[in-house]
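Q: Entry one of two.
A:
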Amino acid sequence: MKNILQKDLLEAGLSESEAGIYLAALELGETTVSRLAKKAGIKRTSAYLVIETLKEKGLVTSIKKETASVFFAEDPRKLHLMLEERRNKIDKIMPQLLAFSNLIDKKPEIRYFEGQEGIKDVYRDSLKYPNCEMLAWFSETFATHFDEKFFLEEHIPKRLKKKIPVRALLTDSEFIRDWIKHDQQHLRKTKIISKKGYNVSIELNIYGDNKIGVVSYEEQFGIIIESKKIHESLKSIFELVWGLLP
């Protein structure tokens, strides 16, 4: 029973020595340091220090009797008051603590997806943000290494329904020039970049407030990154390139 009580006191915030001395004081009543130390199983010199901390917490009181001081435990219900005071102090400073936490750079969250279904899941995630423009670097490799029907029969219709416009940068090719003929009906604006000095074989989508989708059709994997800083940086690069192209 005593061990259980001591464990509960530890969970309430007392140290092991404090819990031992406090339980000893409850059992012994008005008593001396020597008896408390012996009952709690700690050294007398250590007991003095522990008693001082318990006195500061209002759990132990001392009085002088003749030539020596004696100690006794305060009402256990004071533990409730102690915990309540601690909670009130934490509640008081919580707004400042939260303000500090918002200033801390958080590590980006990265999720990895494999195979064609994994790649589809990366694109499906972009549909969670209706009326929010998506910026994209497209790669024509989807035509040879992916199921083109997914875009025509699932992704594009759902994107249109959710009114998600796209601005895209694409490398020049006959296939791409045929693909962009449908820009208007697909709620898409595109600009073409010459393949000379520009070799992009992955797709990169910037969407939502902090999401980046990366897809490699040939390697059959995709990544979703959640990072405000990476999102903003890539968006700035996209806008720079977009502005430079005719």
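Q: Entry two of two.
A:
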Amino acid sequence: MCYTIALNFEDGITRFVDCKPGEKVLDAAFRNKINLPMDCSDGVCGTCKCRAESGSYDLGEDYIEDALTEDEAAEGLVLTCQMVPSSDCVLSVPVTAASCKTGQQTFAATVTRIEPHHDAAVVLELEAGDAPVFLPGQYVNIDVPGGGDHRSYSFSTAPGERSLGFLIKKIPGGLMGNWLSCAKPGDTLALTGPMGSFYLRDGDGPLLFLAGGTGLAPFLSMLEVLARAGSRRHVHLIYGVTRDQDLVLVDQIAAYAKRLPNFTFATVVADPASDHPRKGWVTQHMPEEMLATPGVEVYLCGPPPMVDAVRHYLDDNGIRPASFHYEKFTPNAPLKAIA
């Protein structure tokens, strides 16, 4: 049995390597032709220091205090030359992928379904030859055929499947939208990734998901992963949109309430003329009792004004979640996620 180690580089590129039982992460990376930072490889210099975001591992005792202090180890810092995983792990690597002589991966996928949702969004389903590995919440760049450009979209489906889903905002005259209007099943697309530091972390604390428009996509991936794992975590999703017709895939969200015993959600429409029972902004509907719960983790994905509004709300009200992860996106591409 091998463990899967996700290496998240500081430029947003993620590479996955298989690590054999008893094998050190540095050796597994080299075997997969990824040159992680190193100098001594003996636990002496600290050059290979990274941060373990999740997973179980053993660091042994064959390293010195100057390379990794007790406090650093308690905070999740590791020496990859000493780290032996005992589960799948996610590591943040404090250098670029290029400096480790690796880079983005490109793969092909075939269109299987295109489903418009009014003038708001399009559900795009693809099938890949091999199931791509990614972290729930990450995105890929999709080349627009004939356009010489690409657009960035988060997976709305769970990792480990050949069937890939995306939720794409309809933009009048948009490059991808124009192509989708004449695309058909069987067409081929080139995808590059995965990328991004916006992804679901391990833990057992309550989760508050805040989605704006097609920023719903990464949360669908996260919810599917939680459901398959039989998670008992308390999860509340607030899905905010501008107009009634922008609310899409609500039935799919509701289905998770049957699969996740502690999952609830609310939809919010900003349009004051709407008949929706909850109007206004996401910040007006965040449950205060949940935000005050120790250990609550907040995940936010939406357009820049929404992200900025939530950040200011938390700051202005002195709310400090155990962790706060967010990703802004523009109609063309997501900006770099900040965690």
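A: Comment on entry two: Residues 3-100 form a domain with the Ubiquitin-like (UB roll) fold (CATH 3.10.20.30). The chain has three domains: 3-100, 106-195, 207-328.
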